[in-house]
What we know:
Layout: H1 2-20, E1 27-29, E2 32-35, E3 37-38, E4 45-51, E5 74-76, E6 111-116, E7 125-131, H2 149-153, E8 157-161, H3 166-169, H4 174-179, H5 188-203, E9 209-219, H6 221-231, E10 241-245, H7 259-272, H8 278-283, H9 286-289
Parallel strand pairs: 2-5, 7-8, 7-9, 9-10
Antiparallel strand pairs: 1-2, 3-4, 4-6, 6-8
Amino acid sequence: MRQTSIATILLTAMAALSLNAAITGPVRVTGGQVSGVPGKDPSIVAFKGIPFAAPPVGALRWRAPKPVVAWQGIKKADQFGNSCIQNIVTERKPHTYEFMAHNAISEDCLYINVWTAARTPSERRPVYMYIYGGGNTEGSSAVPVYDGEGPAKKGIVLVTVNYRLGVLGFFTHPELTKEAEYHASGNYGVLDLVAALHWVHDNIAAFGGDPAKVTIGGQSAGAGNSHTLTASPLAKGLFRGAIAESGSSVSSGTSGSTLAAQEQVGVKFAHAKGAASLADLRKMSWQKLIELTPGPTTGTGPYATAFRFSFHRQV
Length: 315
């Protein structure tokens, strides 16, 4: 009798847990299927490190993001993808450990993460896509403080995303402008965010989110990039609201720079690196690209000789 009672209690507990558990089965997204892992709260499931575009390496360096490479089987989305290229530090006061990226870095870094408490895809919960800050030279969706479990507990499907940084995300050069079908350069990080928004639009319903209720937001550079997306025709219709915390691409003081002036900054950078052509730059290791280059700068931060964020990019 006692054994029967214990079995009954266990079955009841398991049934209650299943009622509270979020989507656990494989989810089909662009490129293939992914499976998530429970959060600290078992009612939340996290899907980490989902690729949303092809790795921007080799000939794809300094190009608009290309479609994701499909995979076979079920990808276990239990670990964050690589952070984009940057200088990794333990802390940068006043920002302490929990505000910094600590995982591996690579040019293969275009990954997206989702936290959800939805039990079925039909729930259509509001979606928030958070864009990290870091001066467009550092930051990551793997930063500890950006864990999405808290918002997910409150009914939001929380999305974080990586985008290219520094010289790999915002480099302007006349050869790049010439080869681009949109006749501009220096906007690769922003184009990554546009691609991420398209991914959210196409896939978030499978996680219980509503593609018609997407809000974007971020802090510092993330706020500035959110502001830029509100002005970009490429992002039109992909979100309905934006939250900009402590930053704006309008008030950044760089809006007076022209594309032509930016291209000349890129030419000087290429010469300083000993590159005679764009092909030489694409063959160069990322380690050499991010080395500090002597000489005057036109912006702030370690990549200032390579890029300067401005509204003159066609985004």
